[in-house]
Structure formats: C-alpha cells, structure tokens
Amino acid sequence: MGIRPTPWIWHNGKLVPWEEARVHVLTHALHYGSSVFEGIRTYSTPRGPAVLGLEPHVRRLFASCKIYRLAIPYSPEEIAQAILDTVRANGLRDCYIRPLVFRGLGTLALDARECPTEVIIATVEMGNYLGEEGLRQGIDVVVTSWQRMAPNTFPAMAKIGGQYINSQLIAMEAHDRGAAEGLALNADGYVSEGSGENIFIVRDGVLVTPPLSASILPGITRGFVLQLARDLGYEVREEMIAREMLYLADEIFLTGTAAEITPVRSVDGLLIGNGERGPVTARLQEEFFGIVTGRKEDRFGWLTCVEGG
Predict the structure, then answer these.
(1) Residue 66 annotated as catalytic
(2) From the candidates 14, 66, 159, 296, which is the catalytic residue?
(3) pLDDT surpasses 80 at 301
(4) Which domains are assigned to the chain?
C-alpha cells in the first residue's frame, strides 16, 4: 500500500508535522529490528470515525514490550488517548493506525536497554489490503518454503519488528509464485498462519483455527471472529491443522486488521470448495462489516468513537 502523507504524527508525547518526524541513522531499531508495533483500523460510522479494538490492541502492544524487555514511558491510557488524538488531528475517517515503540540512538550493543525508548503514532489512508475483489471472490494462496519460528527461538506471541523478516520472505515468495498471499507451517509441519494474517478453515460447518502453540500471533481480529462465530452458533475449535486439511476444507478465510476477513479460493493451485467465497465466510463478513461500519449494533463493544460519542 502506498503511503500518503498526513499533517501530523504523534512523536514522543506530542504531535509534530509529518516531515519533522525523524530519527538518527544510528537508531538501534534500524540496525537490529528492536521495535514493537501494532496495526489498528479506524472505520467511518454514522457516529463518526471509530477505532476497532483500541483496548486489546494497546494491551497487546504493552504485552509485546514486556516480552521484549522494552520499557515504554507511557501508560496504556496515555497511548490510547494519543491514538484518538492523532486520528482526530489528521481528520481521517477510514484509516490505518501504526503505533511503534522502538529503541533509539544510544548504543549499537545487542543488549541495548540503555537506549532511550521512542514512541510514534502515525495514521494513513488505507483501502482493502488484499483487494476489494478478494473480499468478494477470494484470493489464491500458496504454502511457502519458509516456516514460522520454532518454540524458544523467537517469541511468536509478540509483535516485534525484527521478526517480520520472516513475514517478508513469505510474502515475497508467494508473490513470485503468482499468489496474493503465502502461508507458513510451524516447525512441526502444521499450519501456522499467513505472512500477516491468521487462518480459519471450515469443514462440515465447523470452524477450525490453529492454537497459539502453532507459533501464531494472537490476532485481535482472530479473537473477534472467534467471538462472533460462537455468537452466531457455529462450533469453533482451536487445534493443529495438517497441511493436507487445507486442500480438503469446504472454506478457508484469513483474518487480520489489514486483511479483515478475506476468503481463500485456492491453495497451491487446488480450488477450495467451489473456488469462491463460501456461505460461512459470507455470513461472518456480513456481521463483521455491519458492526465495524455502524450498520449493526456494536453488541461486543469493539468500537471506540474518536469524538467520544
């Protein structure tokens, strides 16, 4: 997605003009990926712009910082308010929000806890990450040669910048093979997740998604879909998924802040179901988008109105 400048970025406690939000070339995070980040979405609703999952996203940001030993000099409440302030200042109704916490200029040592912690919050315009047609018709994906991290190598539950080299390799291989997205297996050969999405399969009306022990990020949208599916009366299981189960699924869809709920029409060239969006995916999409756009009641309390209304 191309980035269009906005007037303001929140940087270390205050809003600064876009062009003044800079760091030094010896910033630790540039060299070692020593950053923690979130991806959050704001949707236009009849009550104005509303942030989806503000509290769980901020909670995960702080959890990732704790795992990584990255001291964050603000409270969760201050970060949540700064997110709302930045969206409001930039006047965007539908946008992507990027909070980033990173080690700044101080040392190039690997144990860089003496470096100052910097925090930025940026908002940019964003459309459909995998394409509007993909939301309706589904996308083609492949299982790539790159695996997700083995236990006790990297903390899969933390959203750490340096770990996204793995995701970049998955995405690049998928694109080189003509697919819209790539999937990764975990170290034991079971399905893990996409380069930036969690995965669900549907078989005989039952939804199955890999558990946290499959080296996945605990996605916020994944959690919303689990909540929504159970509320709609679907049986949902969190269990290991063998690669071949992908080929036998009636439906597959990916979830994520950027991907939202995106159906998969083929895996490794094999059509899933009828090779189009299935009925379970369509129903979940209808409910999800109805809630986040304000057309349906926010019965789960997912949204935070930017203007407080």
Answers:
(1) no
(2) 159
(3) yes
(4) 8-125 (3.30.470.10), 132-292 (3.20.10.10)
